[in-house]
Amino acid sequence: MGCVLVDIDPALSVNRDNPTGIVDQPQLPRFKAYTNYDNYVGVETWTKIGINNTDYNDQGMFDAVNNRFVAPVDGTYLFGATLMYKVNASTAARMIGRLVLNGTIEVRGSYGEISG
């Protein structure tokens, strides 16, 4: 039999649904964001992709105006991304993507490349 530790502060609570056993952390920092327009990316240059909308951002951790997630506490965070590109004039186009920390440091393991 397992146990659930609960903080006395309701803002930091962990909830357990007794009938299902599902545990929820309503204050866990999380968001789901996307772009609703085409970002033009020039050849041979790194371009910051604007992410301007959120499907989920209840804790307000993602700032769509500044295109930034600010972690409220030190820890490990999981990020994922899906990228799609359209070819303008060159059929030899390729795309390289990466996540960066604090605007400059490439996050290890986030670099990816595709060519078409």
From TrEMBL:
Gene3D superfamilies: 2.60.120.40. InterPro entries: Tumour_necrosis_fac-like_dom. This is C1q domain-containing protein.
